[in-house]
Design brief:
Radius of gyration: 23 Å
Shape: globular
Number of helices: 16
Number of strands: 31
Strand content: 15-25%
Structural class: alpha+beta
Oligomer: single chain
Length: 596
């Protein structure tokens, strides 16, 4: 993991790594080509300061990974025996032969970038994104050679990672007085189940529809005193309590008090703004993502306590202002915060991502290893699989200087230690797409992370069935995603007091997270451990509790993209959840699947 570190601490690192205190020659430690949507506009302002974060080589990550898989595998005798914070920290602390630094967390301090340029033999510059926004970054940096084996990453340097919201907004804003449109009588995709037909309409997905469709509507929460669920807010998002209350009044009246009682934890300059948005904020759609998350999670899981982590991230950087850039690495700030907590929510939903190739490999490894630590402690992490299929047309080029055609994987969806969620629409469900806003549920294969063993039995046959289709456009041996899916089309959302339908895996992700929070609620009530890292269970046993999706594809890059097929596929995973079956399978890995 990366830890906040000040200039004094970095100087200590440079001086203390060698037992003889002999400074070896500098050599390039990392370089990363500037992503295509970013361009250099000039040198960093002379008075610009940076909040440096440094990644020390973890002492025994392989051993941590072994523990993670053992406590997450339903066939293993240690299944459900999650690690404590102290056990995890003992596994990942730096090795004895690593840096001669104190083992405690180092103090945070702001550092003039000119001093860092000398220490890292680099140059910081201002870069502008084609869609707006600025970053101060150094695409290449160096260290004395004797430190290369001890320091895995230093940021902010090469990372242009700016996690984008995964929601897509409709052009039309409906009036809240329209409430729930009546069910369509001529929808060819409608399920014949009368309860679902009465609760659902393809033009506006509501909590009642989701709870009925996925079988949670009759479940009563039993463990609200010990079970918790959380969401992540980045890039200035917050969760408006007034909007959330209006939503619950209309779609889940018995849960209205949840709008006032959810907890907000502010991290690294995040916000809990509850005042009226400015004209500029309204034009930017501020809080659409945040509201969508809080409204879905409360309406699906009430009265399970909700925590909203609000982490400062990606504010516009004005080149002539003295602005720390630490807030442009939100996952690091958030991870450092939650990994220091002794008590954690059992489920965390995150609806943000960026192109994997824009994320430096060292950064991705550090963040992904942090996710593994959370999984070992019994936390289920859910991330959206993306909203552009296999990639937006016109952007499907490699970032290696050759600009070769490629499908674009997303991070963190590509991390093997999280559960990635795709999106569906209609009933029976098909892959979610929307030509009106170019939304297409995402899927693909990582170029950073190898295919984990838990995927071997299902991904290899899928790739084999593709044959030479898309040959060279993806890494067939990489971690494949998504793992599962849920509705992600035309979600009812209250924003700025009005009804705003939204598309995206930013809708399907909190939906799945909510369902597994209810699964945990049942497990805890029975005296059992929560699910924790889901995937080993999902790929070996849990997939029996999902409804297969076999129509549609991850449209993108000017192609139809990866198709939905029988069994696992790279656009909907194993399909959509059926809570009664999942509940039984989670309680007893050999339980009989309940038929719908």
């Amino acid at each position: 993991m990366l830890t906040s570190i000040g200039l004094t601490a970095l100087l200590t690192v440079l001086a203390a790594a060698s037992p003889l205190r002999v400074r070896s020659p500098y050599a390039v430690k990392e370089s990363h080509l500037v992503p295509s949507k970013w361009s250099r506009v000039g040198p960093a302002p002379a008075n610009h300061v940076i909040n440096l974060q440094i990644g020390l080589k973890q002492g025994n990550f392989n051993e941590l990974e072994r523990h993670l898989y053992e406590v997450s595998d339903p066939s293993h005798e240690r299944y459900g025996q999650h690690l404590s914070i102290h056990e995890v920290n003992d596994l990942v602390k730096p090795t004895d032969e690593a840096l001669d630094l104190p083992r405690q967390r180092l103090d945070q301090a702001l550092t003039p970038h000119k001093r860092l340029e000398n220490l890292l033999s680099t140059e910081y510059s201002v870069f502008q994104h084609s869609e707006g926004g600025y970053l101060v970054r150094a695409p290449e940096w160096s260290l004395p050679q004797h430190l290369h084996g001890h320091i895995t990453a230093i940021q902010p340097t090469t990372s242009f990672f700016s996690p984008g919201k995964l929601g897509r907004t409709f052009k039309e804003v409906l009036d809240i007085s329209s409430a729930i449109p009546p069910p369509s009588t001529n929808d060819p995709h409608r399920n014949t189940d009368p309860a679902i037909a009465a609760a659902c309409d393809a033009e506006l997905v509501t909590p009642l529809c989701l709870r009925t469709l996925y079988g949670t509507v009759n479940y009563t929460v039993q463990s609200a005193n010990t079970n918790k669920i959380a969401l992540n807010d980045f890039i200035g998002e917050s969760n408006n309590r007034s909007d959330t209350k209006i939503f619950l009044q209309n779609y889940r009246p018995d849960a209205v008090s949840g709008a006032d009682t959810f907890k907000v934890e502010i991290i690294a300059g995040g916000n809990d703004e509850q005042t009226q948005e400015t004209a500029a904020e309204l034009a930017a759609g501020k809080d659409t993502e945040g509201n969508l998350d809080s409204e879905i999670l409360i309406s699906m899981t009430y009265p399970i306590p909700l925590i909203a982590y609000s982490t400062g991230g990606n504010p516009p950087f004005i080149p002539d202002l003295v602005t720390p850039t630490s807030t442009n690495e939100p996952y690091l700030d958030w991870l450092n915060h939650v990994l220091n907590q002794t008590s954690l929510p059992q489920v965390i939903s995150t609806s943000y991502a960026d192109d994997e190739q824009t994320v430096p490999h060292s950064y991705a490894l550090s963040v992904c290893s942090g996710f593994a630590q959370l999984g070992a402690r019994g936390v289920s992490l859910f991330f959206g699989s993306g909203d552009s299929g296999v990639g937006p047309p016109g952007d499907c080029l490699t970032n290696d200087g050759h600009k070769t055609s490629t499908f674009l994987a997303l991070f963190p969806a590509s991390c093997p230690y999280i559960t990635s969620v795709g999106a569906t629409k209609f009933i029976p469900e098909i892959v979610a797409t929307d030509g009106g806003n170019k939304f297409a549920s995402g899927g693909g294969f990582s170029r950073y992370f190898a295919q984990p063993a838990y995927q071997d039995s299902v991904v290899s046959p899928y790739v084999k069935a593709l044959g030479n289709k898309f040959s060279g456009l993806y890494n067939s041996s990489g971690r494949a995603y998504p793992d599962l899916a849920a509705q992600g089309y035309h979600y009812a959302t209250i924003w700025n007091g009005t009804l705003l339908p939204l598309d995206g895996t930013s809708a399907s992700t909190p939906t799945v997270a909510a369902i597994f929070s209810l699964v945990n609620d049942d497990l805890i009530a029975k005296g059992k451990s929560p699910m924790g890292f889901l995937n080993p269970w999902l790929y070996s046993v849990g997939h029996k509790g999902f409804t297969d999706v076999v129509h549609g594809s991850a449209v993108g890059c000017g192609t139809q993209g990866f198709p939905a097929k029988k069994g696992w596929d790279a656009v909907t995973g194993f399909g959509t959840p059926w809570f009664p079956s999942i509940r039984e399978l989670a309680s007893n890995a050999s339980a009989t699947v309940l038929k719908r």
